[in-house]
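Audit log entry. Action: structure prediction of a protein-small molecule complex. Ligand: zinc ion. The ligand was supplied as SMILES and no pocket hint was given, so placement is left entirely to the predictor. Protonation state taken as written. Sequence taken verbatim from the request; no trimming, no tag removal. Recorded inputs:
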Amino acid sequence: MLIDSHCHLDFPDFRDDQAEVMARAHEAGVGQMITIATKFDTLAAALGISDRYDRVYAAFGIHPHEAASTTDLSDAALTDKIMAAARHPKLVGIGETGLDYHYMHSPKDAQIRSFRAHIGVARAMQLPLIIHTREAEDDTMDILRNEMLRGYFPALIHCFSGSVGFGQAMLDLGLYLSFSGIVTFKKAESVRHMAATAPVDRILSETDSPFLAPVPHRGKRNEPAFVAQVVAELAALRGVHQSDLAGHIAANFARLFNKIPARLGKAAP
Ligand SMILES: [Zn+2]
Ligand SMILES: [Zn+2]
């Protein structure tokens, strides 16, 4: 069973052929996926998809790009709204949240405040925190180290694209690293190095679709079925069989996202 731990099925890119996309995911062996809602406006759409498809779960967080939209809410109100979302039975993770200093669509202070609010919810509810971080390694590390000291919360770095030092620091903090199609890009040396060397019980697979299609689909719309290329590349880099690695990733996913009920045998259609 393959796992797509991070996709955006509510995006307009999938409006016209959602059923076909889901059928191709099934065909490719994708047993479970998490569709990520990135703002309050799209939460209902993501939950609707998770209600419609048995194998799809949802996560919710204010994307760092959208953090400025939360500045009219008090810290308590922001926390309450995220918690309310997380009580839905198919909402299994908090995020994506984090820091994106590449685009800087929201000011730094708004991003940091929102990140900390999401961490508080993940800690209180013991739901995994899904972290997006880009060109913000030092602040991400400082905040996570500091917040972990205040109380443990499960967490992953989604679409790992950082330096080897950052990846190692995240592993040392107990986080998981989720790899996307970037791992198939030959120039992504630090990502490929971490993919090859991270402990087998700490890695996850994702597409981040509709973005970042892996080779040989690079440049096209991405979709959950293409997580097969991500896992194939991870297995090749690690010198192991794809099916063995897929088994580890499924076990890691079940351990981290433990709100997802355990399945016996084959996933239901
Ligand atoms: Zn992201
Ligand atoms: Zn995303």
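Audit: result stored. The radius of gyration is 17 Å. The chain has nine helices and eight strands.
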